[in-house]
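can u do me a favor
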Protein backbone atom coordinates (compact mmCIF):
# COMPACT_ATOMS: atom_id res chain seq x y z
CA UNK A 1 0.00 0.00 0.00
CA UNK A 2 1.34 3.45 -0.92
CA UNK A 3 1.54 5.99 1.90
CA UNK A 4 2.39 8.76 -0.53
CA UNK A 5 -0.81 9.60 -2.41
CA UNK A 6 0.77 12.91 -3.45
CA UNK A 7 2.68 11.19 -6.26
CA UNK A 8 -0.54 9.72 -7.64
CA UNK A 9 1.39 7.79 -10.23
CA UNK A 10 4.53 5.78 -9.70
CA UNK A 11 7.63 8.00 -9.86
CA UNK A 12 9.45 7.56 -13.13
CA UNK A 13 6.63 5.82 -14.97
CA UNK A 14 5.66 7.89 -17.99
CA UNK A 15 2.41 7.04 -19.74
CA UNK A 16 3.13 8.16 -23.30
CA UNK A 17 5.95 5.82 -24.23
CA UNK A 18 5.22 6.15 -27.95
CA UNK A 19 5.91 9.84 -28.70
CA UNK A 20 9.16 10.23 -30.62
CA UNK A 21 11.88 12.30 -28.95
CA UNK A 22 11.96 15.93 -30.07
CA UNK A 23 15.46 17.00 -31.13
CA UNK A 24 17.07 20.11 -32.58
CA UNK A 25 16.97 18.33 -35.97
CA UNK A 26 13.27 17.47 -35.70
CA UNK A 27 12.50 21.12 -34.86
CA UNK A 28 14.08 22.19 -38.16
CA UNK A 29 12.04 19.56 -39.98
CA UNK A 30 8.91 20.96 -38.33
CA UNK A 31 9.81 24.40 -39.67
CA UNK A 32 10.30 23.01 -43.18
CA UNK A 33 6.94 21.21 -42.95
CA UNK A 34 5.29 24.43 -41.67
CA UNK A 35 4.11 22.47 -38.66
CA UNK A 36 3.74 24.86 -35.68
CA UNK A 37 6.16 24.19 -32.81
CA UNK A 38 4.77 24.31 -29.27
CA UNK A 39 6.79 25.39 -26.24
CA UNK A 40 5.86 26.05 -22.62
CA UNK A 41 7.91 26.85 -19.58
CA UNK A 42 8.06 24.40 -16.69
CA UNK A 43 9.97 24.88 -13.48
CA UNK A 44 9.37 21.71 -11.50
CA UNK A 45 8.81 17.96 -11.84
CA UNK A 46 5.01 17.88 -11.78
CA UNK A 47 4.55 20.71 -14.29
CA UNK A 48 7.23 19.18 -16.50
CA UNK A 49 5.43 15.83 -16.57
CA UNK A 50 2.06 17.40 -17.35
CA UNK A 51 3.50 19.56 -20.13
CA UNK A 52 5.53 16.72 -21.64
CA UNK A 53 2.71 14.19 -21.44
CA UNK A 54 0.32 16.69 -23.07
CA UNK A 55 2.55 16.54 -26.16
CA UNK A 56 4.32 19.92 -26.07
CA UNK A 57 7.45 19.93 -28.28
CA UNK A 58 9.81 22.02 -26.13
CA UNK A 59 10.02 22.62 -22.40
CA UNK A 60 11.84 25.78 -21.39
CA UNK A 61 13.15 26.19 -17.85
CA UNK A 62 12.99 29.95 -18.27
CA UNK A 63 14.63 32.44 -15.96
CA UNK A 64 11.09 33.79 -15.62
CA UNK A 65 11.01 31.31 -12.73
CA UNK A 66 12.68 34.16 -10.84
CA UNK A 67 9.28 35.86 -10.64
CA UNK A 68 6.89 32.93 -11.10
CA UNK A 69 8.50 30.54 -8.59
CA UNK A 70 10.81 32.58 -6.39
CA UNK A 71 8.97 35.90 -6.09
CA UNK A 72 11.85 38.07 -7.30
CA UNK A 73 11.10 41.47 -8.82
CA UNK A 74 12.66 40.58 -12.19
CA UNK A 75 14.91 37.95 -13.76
CA UNK A 76 18.19 39.65 -12.81
CA UNK A 77 18.56 38.12 -9.34
CA UNK A 78 18.21 34.43 -10.11
CA UNK A 79 21.48 32.50 -9.83
CA UNK A 80 23.09 29.57 -11.65
CA UNK A 81 22.53 27.32 -8.66
CA UNK A 82 18.86 28.25 -8.40
CA UNK A 83 18.36 27.64 -12.12
CA UNK A 84 20.18 24.31 -11.95
CA UNK A 85 18.00 23.16 -9.06
CA UNK A 86 14.91 23.66 -11.24
CA UNK A 87 16.48 22.25 -14.42
CA UNK A 88 17.28 19.01 -12.58
CA UNK A 89 13.68 18.70 -11.33
CA UNK A 90 12.28 19.36 -14.80
CA UNK A 91 14.72 16.87 -16.34
CA UNK A 92 13.21 14.15 -14.14
CA UNK A 93 9.74 14.97 -15.54
CA UNK A 94 10.50 15.41 -19.23
CA UNK A 95 10.81 12.42 -21.51
CA UNK A 96 10.00 13.35 -25.12
CA UNK A 97 10.11 17.14 -25.31
CA UNK A 98 13.33 19.03 -26.02
CA UNK A 99 14.63 20.46 -22.74
CA UNK A 100 15.96 24.02 -22.94
CA UNK A 101 17.63 25.74 -19.97
CA UNK A 102 17.81 29.50 -19.73
CA UNK A 103 21.22 30.91 -18.80
CA UNK A 104 20.61 33.47 -16.05
CA UNK A 105 21.90 37.03 -15.98
CA UNK A 106 25.61 37.12 -15.08
CA UNK A 107 26.27 33.54 -16.13
CA UNK A 108 27.41 34.36 -19.68
CA UNK A 109 27.97 38.12 -19.88
CA UNK A 110 31.25 38.29 -17.93
CA UNK A 111 33.65 36.25 -20.08
CA UNK A 112 33.35 33.44 -22.58
CA UNK A 113 35.28 30.87 -20.53
CA UNK A 114 32.82 31.21 -17.64
CA UNK A 115 29.91 31.20 -20.10
CA UNK A 116 30.97 27.93 -21.74
CA UNK A 117 31.62 26.35 -18.36
CA UNK A 118 28.18 27.44 -17.06
CA UNK A 119 26.51 26.15 -20.23
CA UNK A 120 28.27 22.81 -19.69
CA UNK A 121 26.92 22.66 -16.11
CA UNK A 122 23.35 22.82 -17.47
CA UNK A 123 24.10 19.86 -19.73
CA UNK A 124 26.26 17.81 -17.36
CA UNK A 125 24.52 18.44 -14.03
CA UNK A 126 21.04 19.50 -15.18
CA UNK A 127 20.50 17.25 -18.20
CA UNK A 128 19.52 20.14 -20.49
CA UNK A 129 19.74 19.56 -24.23
CA UNK A 130 19.90 23.21 -25.28
CA UNK A 131 20.88 26.40 -23.44
CA UNK A 132 19.25 29.76 -24.16
CA UNK A 133 21.07 33.07 -24.25
CA UNK A 134 19.58 36.55 -24.58
CA UNK A 135 20.99 39.12 -26.98
CA UNK A 136 21.58 39.71 -30.67
CA UNK A 137 24.64 40.01 -32.91
CA UNK A 138 26.95 40.86 -30.01
CA UNK A 139 26.39 37.31 -28.70
CA UNK A 140 27.20 35.57 -32.02
CA UNK A 141 30.84 34.84 -31.19
CA UNK A 142 29.98 33.48 -27.73
CA UNK A 143 27.26 31.29 -29.23
CA UNK A 144 29.84 29.83 -31.65
CA UNK A 145 32.11 28.99 -28.72
CA UNK A 146 29.33 27.26 -26.79
CA UNK A 147 28.33 25.28 -29.88
CA UNK A 148 32.03 24.36 -30.29
CA UNK A 149 31.73 22.77 -26.86
CA UNK A 150 28.97 20.53 -28.33
CA UNK A 151 26.16 22.42 -26.66
CA UNK A 152 23.21 23.51 -28.83
CA UNK A 153 22.17 27.12 -28.22
CA UNK A 154 18.80 28.87 -28.51
CA UNK A 155 19.02 32.59 -29.25
CA UNK A 156 16.61 35.12 -27.77
CA UNK A 157 16.12 38.52 -29.41
CA UNK A 158 13.70 41.45 -29.30
CA UNK A 159 12.44 42.26 -25.81
CA UNK A 160 15.10 40.55 -23.72
CA UNK A 161 14.08 40.79 -20.04
CA UNK A 162 17.67 40.62 -18.75
CA UNK A 163 18.22 44.01 -20.49
CA UNK A 164 15.31 45.63 -18.62
CA UNK A 165 17.48 48.38 -17.14
CA UNK A 166 19.10 49.19 -20.49
CA UNK A 167 15.75 49.18 -22.33
CA UNK A 168 14.20 51.34 -19.59
CA UNK A 169 11.36 48.86 -19.01
CA UNK A 170 9.71 46.00 -20.83
CA UNK A 171 9.16 47.65 -24.21
CA UNK A 172 8.18 46.22 -27.57
CA UNK A 173 11.31 46.30 -29.75
CA UNK A 174 11.68 46.91 -33.49
CA UNK A 175 9.03 49.59 -33.87
CA UNK A 176 11.24 52.01 -35.83
CA UNK A 177 13.09 51.44 -39.11
CA UNK A 178 16.40 51.56 -37.23
CA UNK A 179 15.03 49.06 -34.70
CA UNK A 180 13.85 46.71 -37.46
CA UNK A 181 17.26 46.88 -39.14
CA UNK A 182 18.98 45.99 -35.87
CA UNK A 183 16.63 43.07 -35.21
CA UNK A 184 17.20 41.69 -38.71
CA UNK A 185 20.97 41.95 -38.19
CA UNK A 186 20.61 40.19 -34.82
CA UNK A 187 18.52 37.37 -36.29
CA UNK A 188 20.83 36.77 -39.24
CA UNK A 189 23.99 36.89 -37.06
CA UNK A 190 22.59 34.30 -34.62
CA UNK A 191 21.32 32.12 -37.46
CA UNK A 192 24.80 32.17 -39.04
CA UNK A 193 26.34 31.37 -35.65
CA UNK A 194 24.25 28.17 -35.75
CA UNK A 195 21.48 28.61 -33.17
CA UNK A 196 19.17 25.61 -32.85
CA UNK A 197 16.18 27.95 -32.64
CA UNK A 198 15.50 31.62 -32.09
CA UNK A 199 13.13 32.95 -29.44
CA UNK A 200 11.61 36.24 -30.64
CA UNK A 201 9.95 38.23 -27.88
CA UNK A 202 7.92 41.44 -27.90
CA UNK A 203 8.22 42.58 -31.51
CA UNK A 204 5.57 43.68 -34.05
CA UNK A 205 4.15 40.70 -35.93
CA UNK A 206 5.35 42.12 -39.27
CA UNK A 207 8.95 42.10 -38.04
CA UNK A 208 8.67 38.59 -36.57
CA UNK A 209 7.30 37.39 -39.93
CA UNK A 210 10.29 38.94 -41.76
CA UNK A 211 12.74 37.30 -39.33
CA UNK A 212 10.99 33.93 -39.68
CA UNK A 213 11.26 33.91 -43.45
CA UNK A 214 14.85 35.18 -43.38
CA UNK A 215 16.40 32.60 -41.03
CA UNK A 216 16.84 28.83 -41.28
CA UNK A 217 16.48 28.34 -37.53
CA UNK A 218 12.92 27.85 -36.27
CA UNK A 219 11.57 31.01 -34.62
CA UNK A 220 9.61 30.63 -31.40
CA UNK A 221 7.52 33.72 -30.73
CA UNK A 222 6.17 35.24 -27.55
CA UNK A 223 4.31 38.48 -28.11
CA UNK A 224 5.52 38.30 -31.70
CA UNK A 225 2.36 37.43 -33.60
CA UNK A 226 1.19 34.31 -35.41
CA UNK A 227 3.77 34.06 -38.19
CA UNK A 228 6.63 32.57 -36.16
CA UNK A 229 7.45 28.88 -36.60
CA UNK A 230 6.28 28.21 -33.06
CA UNK A 231 4.86 29.82 -29.95
CA UNK A 232 5.98 29.84 -26.33
CA UNK A 233 4.06 31.00 -23.27
CA UNK A 234 4.80 30.92 -19.57
CA UNK A 235 3.04 28.03 -17.77
CA UNK A 236 1.97 30.30 -14.90
CA UNK A 237 0.53 32.88 -17.35
CA UNK A 238 -1.75 30.44 -19.17
CA UNK A 239 -3.01 29.11 -15.83
CA UNK A 240 -3.61 32.42 -14.02
CA UNK A 241 -0.90 31.86 -11.43
CA UNK A 242 0.82 35.23 -11.78
CA UNK A 243 -1.05 37.54 -9.37
CA UNK A 244 -1.27 40.45 -11.81
CA UNK A 245 -2.80 41.61 -15.06
CA UNK A 246 -1.49 39.55 -17.98
CA UNK A 247 0.44 40.99 -20.92
CA UNK A 248 -1.50 41.63 -24.15
CA UNK A 249 -0.25 38.44 -25.79
CA UNK A 250 -1.15 36.07 -22.92
CA UNK A 251 -4.14 33.82 -23.40
CA UNK A 252 -5.49 32.21 -20.23
CA UNK A 253 -6.36 28.55 -20.73
CA UNK A 254 -7.31 27.79 -17.16
CA UNK A 255 -7.76 29.26 -13.69
CA UNK A 256 -5.42 27.28 -11.46
CA UNK A 257 -5.44 30.10 -8.89
CA UNK A 258 -9.22 29.76 -8.51
CA UNK A 259 -9.00 25.98 -8.38
CA UNK A 260 -6.25 26.02 -5.73
CA UNK A 261 -7.93 28.71 -3.62
CA UNK A 262 -11.24 26.81 -3.59
CA UNK A 263 -9.53 23.53 -2.68
CA UNK A 264 -7.48 25.14 0.11
CA UNK A 265 -10.54 26.92 1.54
CA UNK A 266 -12.56 23.70 1.44
CA UNK A 267 -9.79 21.83 3.29
CA UNK A 268 -9.58 24.57 5.93
CA UNK A 269 -13.35 24.49 6.37
CA UNK A 270 -13.43 20.68 6.66
CA UNK A 271 -10.68 20.63 9.31
CA UNK A 272 -12.26 23.41 11.35
CA UNK A 273 -15.68 21.74 11.23
CA UNK A 274 -14.14 18.31 11.97
CA UNK A 275 -15.40 16.95 8.65
CA UNK A 276 -11.87 15.87 7.75
CA UNK A 277 -10.58 13.23 8.11
CA UNK A 278 -13.46 10.76 8.13
CA UNK A 279 -13.27 7.21 9.51
CA UNK A 280 -12.74 5.94 5.93
CA UNK A 281 -9.74 8.24 5.61
CA UNK A 282 -8.17 6.86 8.81
CA UNK A 283 -5.95 3.83 9.39
CA UNK A 284 -7.32 1.13 11.73
CA UNK A 285 -5.71 -1.39 14.01
CA UNK A 286 -5.84 -5.05 12.90
CA UNK A 287 -8.67 -6.96 14.66
CA UNK A 288 -6.33 -9.04 16.88
CA UNK A 289 -4.28 -5.99 17.96
CA UNK A 290 -7.48 -4.12 18.73
CA UNK A 291 -8.79 -7.00 20.88
CA UNK A 292 -5.41 -7.27 22.64
CA UNK A 293 -5.30 -3.54 23.26
CA UNK A 294 -8.83 -3.60 24.73
CA UNK A 295 -7.79 -6.39 27.10
CA UNK A 296 -4.71 -4.43 28.23
CA UNK A 297 -6.74 -1.26 28.76
CA UNK A 298 -9.44 -3.15 30.63
CA UNK A 299 -6.79 -4.67 32.95
CA UNK A 300 -5.33 -1.23 33.56
CA UNK A 301 -8.75 0.18 34.40
CA UNK A 302 -9.47 -2.76 36.75
CA UNK A 303 -6.19 -2.10 38.65
CA UNK A 304 -7.09 1.53 39.06
CA UNK A 305 -10.51 0.73 40.54
O1 LIG B 1 12.24 33.00 -19.16
C1 LIG B 1 11.33 32.79 -19.97
O2 LIG B 1 10.25 32.31 -19.63
C2 LIG B 1 11.59 33.12 -21.37
C3 LIG B 1 10.45 33.02 -22.32
C4 LIG B 1 9.50 34.09 -22.07
C5 LIG B 1 10.91 33.00 -23.73
O3 LIG B 1 12.67 33.47 -21.70
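np, heres the sequence
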Amino acid sequence: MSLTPITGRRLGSHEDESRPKVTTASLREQKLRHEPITCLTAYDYSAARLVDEAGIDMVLVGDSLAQAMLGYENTLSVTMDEMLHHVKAVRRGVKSALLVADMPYGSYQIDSKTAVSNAARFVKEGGAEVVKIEGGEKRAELIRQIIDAEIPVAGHIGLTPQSVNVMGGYKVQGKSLVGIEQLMRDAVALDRAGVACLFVEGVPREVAAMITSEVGAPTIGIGAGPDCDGQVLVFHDILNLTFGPPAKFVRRYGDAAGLITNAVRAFREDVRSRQYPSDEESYHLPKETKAGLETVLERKRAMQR
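The chain has a mean pLDDT of 95. hope that helps!!
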